[in-house]
Amino acid sequence: MERRNLIVQPVKLTCISLLTGKEMPIPYKTILCLGNFDGVHPGHLALIRESIRIRKTLGTDVLCGAFCFWEHSSDLLFQRPVEHLNSAEERTELFAKAGLEFVIYADFADLRALSPEVFAKEILANQCHCTAAVCGFNYRFGKGAAGTAEDLSRLLGAPVSVCPAVEIDGAPVSSTRIRTAIREGKVSEAARLLGRPFTLKGPVKHGKELGRKLGFPTANQEFSPFAAVPRHGVYATDCFLDGKWYRGVSNVGNHPTVDVPSTAVNCETYLLDYEGDLYGKTLTVEFLQFLRPEKTFESIETLKKQIALDAEQASKFTE
Prior knowledge:
The chain is α/β, with parallel strands linked by helices and 319 residues long. It has helices at residues 42-58, 73-77, 88-98, 108-111, 116-127, 149-156, 175-183, 187-194, 210-213, 300-316, and strands at 13-17, 30-34, 63-69, 102-106, 130-136, 140-141, 147-148, 160-163, 167-168, 171-172, 199-203, 218-222, 233-241, 244-253, 266-271, 282-293. Strands 1-4-3-2-5-8 form a six-stranded mixed β-sheet, sandwiched between helices. It has a six-stranded antiparallel β-sheet with strand order 11-16-13-14-15-12. Strands 6-7 form a two-stranded antiparallel ribbon. α5 (116-127) crosses α6 (149-156) and α7 packs antiparallel against α8. It is elongated.
C-alpha cells in the first residue's frame, strides 16, 4: 500500500552542487549532515567526516551533503538576529572545502511549524531522499524543537550517527562560544575555536578618503547588520586581494575622531606594501590579533602618528 503523505505540498528546497556552485536536483540517495552550521567549526567538521566515512560503507551511488537553513533558526525562534559567523555563500564554500558534494538550503519559516514526524518523514526522507543522517549530540528538530537526536532514527527509518561534542581547552566548541570571543576582541581565541581566522569578505566601498589624505590609504568595508562584529578597536590582519596576501592594520568601529558616532560599523584596513586602486574590489580580511581599543584623538596629526605605530606593530606580529 502506498504511504500517505503527511503534508499536502512539498516545501521549497534549494540544492546546490558543491562541484559546480550551481543548483542541481536533489540526489536520488543522500547522506545528510544536519544543523545550522554557523561558522563550520571543528564540531561541524566532525559531522562531515562521519558522513564521508558512512558513504564509504554504503557505495558510490550515495552522495554526502548538508541540510541547513538560509538564515539561522534562532533568528525566527527568538525574534532577534543571531550574529552570523559567515554568510550562506561563505558557508557553501566551506562545505565544499570539507569534502561535501551538495548542500540543501531551506527557509526556516517554511519548516518551523512542522512536527518532528513530518519533518523527518516528509522533508528528509521523501524530499531529500535521506538514507542516513549525521547530527550533533544536541540536535533538535520539529515544532518547538520537540524532536531529539534519539528520536530521529526512529522517525526517519534510517540509520543516524550522533556525534559527541568536540572540545578545546576542556569545553565544547560551539558557535556561541566563538561569537563571544569575537565580540570581546579575542580574535586569536576565535581562530583556535574556528580552526581558521575569523574573516570579513566583501567589496571595498568609497569612504571619505581621510586615510589617503593622511598618507595611509584604506579599504573601507561594512559589516552586515547580521554579522558577528569584533570589539571596536584596531587589529593586525592578513588581507587577500587580487590573488595576493598583504599584512594589514584594520580599524573596526565608527570613526570617533572624524565623524559623529553612528550605529553603522565599518572596517577600515590599511594594506602594508600595497599601491593601487582598491575601490570595487573584493577584499578578504583575516583578523589575527587585537592591538588597541578604538579611541578619539585630540587632533588629526595625533591620529596620523598612531596609525604609523599601529602599522609598525601589525607588521611585526607573528602568529
